[in-house]
Amino acid sequence: MGGTWRENTYPGCPCDILSHLYSFSFEPNPHWTRQYPTQPEIWDYLRRCVVKYRIGPHIRFRTRVTAVEFDDDSTTWRLATNTGEAVRARAVVGAFGPLHEPAIPDLPGLHRFAGTMFHSARWDHDHDLTGRRVAVIGTGASAIQFIPQIAKRVDRLQIFQRTPPWIMPKPDHEIRRFEHRLFRWFPPAQRAFRHLIYWRQEAAALRFVVNPRLMRLAEALATRNIERHVHDPALRAALTPRYVIGCKRILISNDYYPTPNRPNVGLTTRCLRELDRGRTIDVRPAAEHAFNDWVQSKLRGTVWQTGCRSWYLNDEGRNRTLWPGFTFTYWWRTRTPRLSDYEVVAR
Predict the structure, then answer these.
(1) CA distance 236 to 258
(2) Rounded Cα gap, residues 122 and 143, in angstroms
(3) Tell me, what DSSP letter sits at residue 58?
(4) What three-state secondary structure class fits 174?
(5) Cα–Cα distance between 227 and 134 in angstroms, integer?
(6) In the beta sheet, which residues pair with residue 77?
(7) Exposed, middle or buried: residue 77 (CB in 10 Å: 0-12, 13-18, 19+)?
(8) Are 13 and 146 in contact (CB under 8 A)?
(9) Which DSSP string corresponds to 180-200?
(10) Does residue 180 sit within a domain?
(11) Shortest CA distance to 255 belongs to which of 234, 233, 225, 231?
């Protein structure tokens, strides 16, 4: 019982809807501990509802519906199950809950990976990530929640991002004691607060379905959120979406953007994404020549060019092997590709 709130137990798993709205209207909960509820709280709430409203005896666990057919004569539905039981019903509601099913990416060579691997919806709590080298594939709603949590414990964390999400600040805080008392002893106050949240959410429809140009304000706030937390221009560019906010699910977080700033966290995105779009990438000759000329000019004053013969040099005495500078300068220059230097061709 619980669907996605039973399956997802990864570190830092919360809901991105305010707790007083993310509950049944007929069963308000004055005991939420935070503005945005966490997975254990939501799962406990759902199980309490099952007990209170005596739904348990009507639930068939470990049972799969294999066929549904409408009987015109009796105007009822006939349901077949994998247990062999036949069920008749006046109404059938397809509440399938697809978000609890893990989506495993079709990555070449994934089956050859010899390390520990699991989906966030099947979190392996027996595998201690402390001091480990960890790769996270994807930056969806779950990833931006658990990445800041595990980044504090791992030795090295590499984030592989296909498309950056728009992330808004999360106005989360602990619900104060007087609010608990008010909502417990005066339920109309909690109902009024729920209505306020509901209509504030409904007002967002003006931006999504009536006039998408109204999304510009939200996009400006989200952009400011990136600028406030990410000071590296290249990293900021990699984390900034290039689609209108709202086109994909808008996420909320206060601790995701600061995480890639950590020295033990890396972000891999520009060339792999172009390849993933079914394109080939080839450096333009002019850019290649300019880069090589710059490297050779920097090498002239180095110790490797002082007259000895070494395997660093080719027959013409040109150093084709070594980088003329610090490793962090190499990292800086190769961190983000300048696509204008490449021929990008659709296959």
Answers:
(1) 11
(2) 13
(3) G
(4) strand
(5) 26
(6) 70, 89
(7) middle
(8) yes
(9) HHHHHH-HHHHHHHHHHHHHH
(10) no
(11) 225
pLDDT digits (tens, 9 = 90+) for 258-269: 999 999 998 888
Instruction: Give residue for tokens 């040099």.
Output: 313
User: Is the pLDDT at 85 greater than 80, yes or no?
Assistant: yes
pTM assigned to the model: 0.73
| Residue that finishes a domain, picked among 242, 259, 276 | 276
262 and 294 co-located in one domain: no
Segment 10-28, tens digit of pLDDT = 999 999 999 999 999 899 9
Residue 240 pLDDT: 92
Extract the tokens encoding 81: 């199950």
d(CA 47, CA 123): 21
CA distance 56 to 334: 58
| 155 shares a domain with 258 | yes
Residue 276 has pLDDT above 60, yes or no: no
**Domain match, 245 and 219 both:** yes
Cα–Cα nearest to 38, from 64, 59, 68, 18: 18
Token pair of 24 as six digits? 């049944």
Domain total of the chain: 3
Is the distance from CB of 162 to CB of 242 less than 8 angstroms? Answer: no
CB within 8 Å of 313: residues ≥ 6 apart: 304, 319, 320, 321
Q: Convert the pLDDT of each residue in 96-138 to its tens digit.
A: 776 667 878 788 888 888 999 999 999 999 999 999 999 999 9
Q: Where are the alpha helices (DSSP H) in the chain?
A: 4-7, 39-52, 143-151, 177-185, 187-203, 205, 215-229, 233-239, 271-276, 285-299, 327-334
Q: Which residue has the tokens 């080839």?
A: 282
Q: Among 252, 276, 300, where does a domain finish?
A: 276
Residue labelled with tokens 């909502």: 183
